[in-house]
Amino acid sequence: MALPACPAMVYEAWPRVRGEDGANMADETRQDEPIRPLAGLKGVKPPAPQWFEWALAQPSEEGSVDVAGAEIRYSVWGEPDRRGLVFVHGGRAHRNWWRPFAPYLADRHRVVAFDVSGMGDSGWRDRYSLNGVVDELFAVIEAARLTRGRPLVVGHSFGGWVTLAAVERAGERLAGAVVIDSPLGVPDPDEGYTVAKAKPDDGSRKRPQNRIYPTIAEPIERFRFLPNQPCSELYLVDYIARMGLKETPSPEGGMGWTWKFDPSQGANFDIHFDRDLLLAARCPIAFLYGEQSMFANGDGFEHLRAQARGRSPFIVMPSAHHHLMMEQPIAFITTLRALFACWPVRVGA
After folding, report:
1. Which ranges constitute the DSSP H helices of 244-328?
2. Where do the domains of the chain lie, and which CATH numbers do they carry?
3. DSSP letter assigned to residue 21
């Protein structure tokens, strides 16, 4: 299907990210009134354009694979004889963030999107690790039969950290990696850098619970993204909000609605890199950032851009914020199509 000329906007939520100075980067948005794009709609689905309806109508193969005791759910589009392409969602998101886009890349790729453990429809864990999510990534690659050569991996935000961790550990198994608007700092030449640090746990901390709402309309109307940003394509916002909820028994009796993600997950991650990955990457890396993103500013971003120059494609999408694929979906699809048409340079498999 041809892509229409159509602008758009939306975004995602991830536990607060700690900056290099120990400050809470997401706290910078607290001075702004939270943007709740679906407020006032009373849970009614907004009208959607034809390109979006077409994408959702495309069938996908649904599967799961057990990884260290957790069931990891995934969706696949495209034939097995096509080069693999894996999407990794951001924090507290889910694989259906990619459903509006995957069919537009499935004509040349076998595309898979999976729910990271503790998010979406995948199982929860007592403790989470970045290395464990990389295990999930490679298990999904095998289970989804991405067997033609080495696959590409595309990760947004938290998913970008997963992508870089996969490059660091086993980049030779990948054809290329695309990092989308991940908050990366300036690494210490000896110590590397820490993106997030898990909170200490002596075993006495009670596991938090997501709020249960009496109707699906209430959480949908309350849905918002971090970092805070404007949004206008309400059909996209409504879809990812709706797909991030599940029906569950209510303490008051009957059934209610709650978010699918494990609320304790954000306190359980240590995300650390020992070195500047661009100095010795094990596969080609490309970067895609939103011009208006809070992560496209500061020393960390300038360091990343400087290191990428001459080594990696570095694309900045004009007028876009952190959740650029939702904000400008047609531009996002077109960017990936153009990138994959000429990059990475394929040698051998």
Report:
1. 298-308, 324-327
2. 25-184+191-342 (3.40.50.1820)
3. T
Q: Which of 2, 9, 1 lies closest to 329, judged by CA? A: 9
Nearest alpha carbon to residue 83 among 160, 150, 37: 150
**Encoded amino acid at 329, one letter:** P
Strand 314-317 and strand 285-290: the pairing is parallel
Instruction: Tell me, yes or no, if the pTM score tops 0.70.
Output: yes
pLDDT given at position 220 = 97
Task: Flag residues of the chain having pLDDT under 50.
Answer: 2-31, 348-349
Peptide bond into 37 cis (omega under 30): no
Q: Is the peptide bond before 344 cis (omega within 30 degrees of 0)?
A: yes
pLDDT of the residue at 346: 59
Reduced 3-state DSSP string for 178-189: EEECCCCCCCEC
Contact present, 110 and 76 (Cβ < 8 Å): yes
Q: Are 168 and 273 in contact (CB under 8 A)?
A: yes
